[in-house]
Design a protein that fits this description.
The chain has helices at about 10-20, 40-55, 90-100, and strands spanning about 1-5, 25, 60-70, 110-120, 125-135, 150-155. It is an alpha/beta fold. The longest helix is centred in the first third of the chain and has 16 residues, at about 40-55. The protein starts with a strand and ends in a 27-residue tail after the last strand.
Length: about 180
Amino acid sequence: MDLVLSTRNTHKLREFDGLLAPHRVLPLPDEVVLPPETGTTFAENALIKARAAAEATGRVAIADDSGIAAAALGGRPGVYSARYAGEQATDEENLTKLLREVPEDGDLGVAYVCALAYVDPAGKTHVVEGRCEGTLTHDPRGDGGFGYDPAFVPADRDDGRTMAELDPRTRPGSRSRPTRC
C-alpha cells in the first residue's frame, strides 16, 4: 500500500519508510500546502496534517505529531518541540534551550510522545498515541537520530546510551522494539 506522509521533514520520511515496510511511504507533493498546527494535543495536530494530505492528494495519508515532554517544565515543550526556540530554530537550538531550562539537579524525567494519524480519502480516520519514557542528560552525545535524541536516555535501556547512540535497528520504536513513534 502507498501512504503519503504529511510532512516536509526528511528525517521522518526516512524513518517511516523503514518502519512501515513493506508499505511504500511517499513524500508529500511539493504543491500541497500544510495548514498550521493549531491543535493543543499531538493527536489533534497529526489529524490536521493527515486530513490535509488525504484531501489534497486523494490518497491514504499518515501524519505524526511528536515531541518531548519534560517533567521539570510541566510537560513543555510538548506540541511546540519542533519550534521550541523559535519558528525557524534548528534541532541544536531547540535542544540547547531545553538543556538551559531544565536544571541539571532537577527532575530529569522526559518522555517522547507521538500521535500517528491515518486518514483515507473517504475521511475514515484512526489515531494512535505512544510514549517512550526516559531521562534527560546534559551531556548530549551520539550522531544518530535527530532533534532531542542526543540528550534522551530511554528508560528501557540499562547502558546509559542516548537515542542518538543506539543502532537504528535496536532503537526503541524499531520493528523489533515498538516503544517510540
